[in-house]
């Protein structure tokens, strides 16, 4: 193929793809405001991790004066970058003037920064819960450095703090970044108490309206999902509570599916590979029925 042929194909497709399609325009916000940056949002999470887990994800500084300097630098970077991305998120989804957007973004950013000490406290309870639940963990540092639940919960707790402030888009970007990396899917709208542990983690799903208490442990493959959806008169799905409530001191073993707006009572244990769609009283022990041992002759059962 000649260079002229190559250039013709390239230019033709550049021309086609440069035109705004009707479908593309229907999915874009009005106006020409810049859209949120996925890379910038990823950097925001990195900055928060370097502040909360400073000795692990930046530089160990035993002297508080030096530590204060480095955290101060990170905090200033966080303020600038988060404010910009919140403003972009507001412009992306809400009809607001530029001045109103900037004022709202500044207020929300400072509110979030004011909550960082509580986020740090919560995340260290998660680390402690994971360490206490896993005899394979030799140090807290191993949990912080290596365990996917710490990554997933850091993303979730940041995203949830932003979500409850009605900041659009940004919280979901944050949790989906952790989902793609760890296989743990936590919606930022879920409410999760302190001392939360996920062992292994791959395949865990926690829906938007879940409420999870304190000292709860999940194993890989657990789904806290919706059983069905409610619709309005126009056939649109209603965003109503539809996911489980898990009370304090509950353990859910691998591949259990707990579906619908049901309550799992405190101090209960849900065994693996179980489908639960009804309320479970406190102090329950739910397990599989005994397997039936049958013979499959001549291909029977395949």
Structural account:
By secondary structure, this protein is α/β, with parallel strands linked by helices. The protein is built from ten helices and 14 strands. Strands 1-4-7-10-13 form a five-stranded parallel sheet. It is globular, with a radius of gyration of 24 Å.
Question: Please, what is the oligomeric state?
Answer: single chain
Strand content: 5-15%
Q: Can you give the helix content as a percent range?
A: 40-55%
Structural class computed from helices and strand pairing? alpha/beta
SSE topology string? HHHHHHHHHHEEEEEEEEEEEEEE
> Care to count the β-strands?
14
Q: Give the rounded overall mean pLDDT.
A: 91
The radius of gyration over CA amounts to 24 Å
Report the sheet with the most strands, covering strand number, pairing sense and barrel closure. 5 strands, parallel
Side-by-side strand order of the widest sheet: 1-4-7-10-13
Q: Low-confidence runs (pLDDT<50, min 5 residues)?
A: none
Q: How far apart are the first and last residues' alpha carbons, in Å? A: 53 Å
Number of helices: 10
Q: What general outline do the C-alpha atoms trace?
A: globular
